[in-house]
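ASSEMBLY PREDICTION REQUEST
Request ID: AP-0331
Submitted by: J.K., bench scientist
Number of chains: two
Total residues: 1044
Priority: normal
Notes: Please return the full assembly, not individual chains.
Input sequences:
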Amino acid sequence: MQFAIRLLLRDLRSGDILTLIIALIISVSTVTAISLFIDRLQLSFEKESASLMAADRLIRSDDAIPQIWRDKARELSLQQAENTSFRTMIFAGEALQLSLLNAVTDTYPLRGQFLVDDTLFGAGKTTRQPPQPGKIWLSSRLASLLNVQLGEQVEVGETTLTVAGYLVRDPGSSSSAFAVSPRAVMNMADLGATGVIIPGSRVRYSLLLAGEQEALEQYENWVKPQFNEGQRWRTPIQKGERIGDTIGKAQSFLLLAGTLAVILSGIAIALASSRFVKRHLMQVAVLKTLGATPATLIKTFLIQFSLLFVIGAVIGLALGWLIQGLISSLLSGLMSTSLPEPSAARLWLGIATGLVSMLAFCLPLMQRLIKISPMTVLQPAIRLEQNTLIIYSIGFIGMFGLMCLYTQGFLLPTIMTLAIAGIGALVSLLGFGVFRLGRSLTSGATSGWQIGLASLYRRLIPNLFQLLVFTLIIMLGLILVGVKTSLVSDWQQQLPADAPNHYLFNVQTEQIDPINQIIDELGVPRSDWYPMVRGRVISVNGTTIQSLYPEGRGEPELYERELNLTWSDSIGKGNKLVAGDFDAEGLSVEQAAALEADLSLGDKLELNIGGNVVTLPITSVREVDWGSMQPNFYLILPKEILQDYTANFVSSVYVSDAKAQAFYNEMAQFPTVSMLNVGELLKQIQTIISQLSQAIQLVLICILAAGGLVLLASVRATLEERLEEGALLRVLGARKALVQQALFIEFGSLGLLSGLIAAAGAEACLYGLQVFVFNAQASWHPLLWGLGPFIGVVIICAIGLSASRTVLKVPPMHLLREF
Amino acid sequence: MAVKTAIKVKNLTHTVTANTGDLTILKKINMEIKEGESVAIVGASGSGKSTLLGLLAGLDINTSGEIYLYDHAFSDMDEEARALLRGQYVGFIFQSFHLLPSLQAIENVMLPAELKGDKNARQKAEALLAKVGLSERLTHYPSQLSGGEQQRVAIARAFASSPRILFADEPTGNLDEGNGSIIIDQLFELNRSQGTTLVMVTHDNELAKKCDRQLVMSAGQLLEH
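STATUS: Completed
Returned structure:
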């Protein structure tokens, strides 16, 4: 033990041990920092999205909530609140308005806050307290439609309530975003007195829950089997919802970033340990001649590696903790909410990464050390035949296991592994071809070109390996840059700052012109007007919808309910034709709706429109961007089919805060027109998106920095041999410029080739990731094709040449003595 | 009292596999070296001198025949046992010194004693370095020493485990004449004072002549002078 430690401490001075410790520190700290940060972000997203739903979990029911459900929640120590939501007329003197009224318990909301203001159309102040009994909050629009002020009274059914505030945001509003009536909130205690809820009323009951994850899961398992058809269990991040998708993609990105960090760590440790082994081969052979037995050596190395691991892991963990703290504090200025504290339980991932990398790469290499023949000291040419393929395969399997552990799945690691294997094959083939070609084009050693190209071929295997490492690191960087760029621009495109924030419904043909006039005078951007006729799909190719969709298929149940049908001359904003001909005389179906019912071009749909049955073939399929906030439709019919039905029109407009008051005042002339304000929801989504973009940017910088360090390490790993050759050339009388030129050619060619292959590999990986992981449209990334070779040539040459300055400055004699 | 046999070789043959097929490097060698004797193995490059030295020291396993080191047969041993035997009986000096570059001169000399768990490793190493005239260089690294100094450190290291047999592979091969003769003097002086058996591979005729016996290797066979 003491001998091992003494030897280790002495070895520390040589720098090899230091390289290994640094590699360990890089891997442990990068993975720790990223996983802790992801953890905090995830907690933050959950908090944020829970606040969009006002709870951690929510049960929505068409019937009153059974008492037993409340009791069970209490038993599991879950917090609970209730919201009973219904449409009703609110009266104020002569004025009356159909409104969406939410009666909430005192504990509502469990997550998030209300925004309420004392002035009409004010920005709002946060509060967690719902209105007191006897009080009601009205949205500014509702108050202006009813023409009531604070302190005045409104009638709801048989009771009278006092207006106590203007509701700006109800934390649960996003879940019923498409309710078109203006909103109001009252206390649950007053609900009975209103007498508006009678048997047969359309009421939506919600039981909101918050608490420990485990208790929530237990509750979910208990309650779900009791659900009837009109009851739903909702989580904050629901697949298919825009915000859920956005957060999901961000999480995938962060997961990807973390996975790449794991691979980088593997490369760093593999490089460092192979350098360690290379430098220790002779040392071990000498120790063997001095009588060191294999058992002593195994013990010595195990103690040394364990110590190294402990030192590297402790420093790495501390550093990782610091880095994530730094990233979080950088972000805290930008984020609207503070990040929750990271959980120390996530630290195991960093430790596991360090340990698995060490075991996977160090142990097989260590075995090589132990097996070296002591005869090597007499005949250095004897080196143990060792199958490097096996060593690196073990390492690779270890890395794959780590990635699976990290992503808790196989898809991402498999895509990455296949890509790396493909890249490995490509690198070997191309590298061999190019190096050989370079060699055949040159002979002699009179120019840097000749020397550089000749050495590429001479050290074929190490150069191919280095090419692979360069390519992988550059490729990983490019993939992240590509994913980040397309994700962020995708998000920003989805929700531009002037995305429509109000929908106008129930507009009659004769109201369109006067409304257009108001909109134009206010200078408010709007989308086109679309006619809307209600209709229902009754059969597909003669099979009834009931038999296609047995009960309980889950949302969105497109074909179980009435749909809004429209006609249009053009395909419209936010729509993209994916199959067929839009102008043909038939149905145009939205892609997801077509997929859900397995519909394809030519299928015949039977529709019931206002009691008349029409049968139409599908002539086109559209992809619809639901995030565009334009009026969009699942089914578009030919004009001649729909034009005889009474239609009302829909459009969307962007009303800035400054113009809101004037716009509402003008629109008050059209009391029958329904207006849906999604502005607050949009703002919340935009906040989350900008937070995500910034978070992703920081993680990217973190990984690229780690990648840069690994690149540096890999250049340095083979520098020695190159420098030795440079020193020899100098001894033989070569000018500095010649040595420099030769190194430049060698590093430059490696860099250029790896940059190009990396760009190709990144493009292929991005295709796989976009299509299979992010479910996005695949696209080309021209930026990568420039960036890859640029990084390759400039960075690798810069590192290589700056590290080789010593060869050119120091007298050759000194250098030769060092080698 | 009869002199003990330090090394005994019977019908030693060694074959290696090369790209061109099997290559027999040593052919049916028989020899004996007595305790305290100094023996030089000479011969042309490629004649098999270093291979023979390695096999005698148990660094490699011969293809056939037997080698005994103080009646211990190497052929019956695994690497673990051979290493233990080396630690117990053998010291080495190499042409290219093979000092560990990350260790100071004194630490290099301490190594064999430390491997045996000797608590007085430092004192012994200091004394040995003083004997080879390097008291002033204890904390120098190999790269800070001249070739001659490095080889003197290597000699001190070789004697640090108080070996009964010292194997030397071209000990002066990398040194100039002046340094070479200092090394030789120190080597033989230590050899005499500690009663060590010396087996040396060399090209240097002067050096070979200083030994009690010279064995000539030629194309894998041994001829005694």
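REVIEWER COMMENTS: The mean pLDDT of chain B is 86.
SIGN-OFF: pending second reviewer
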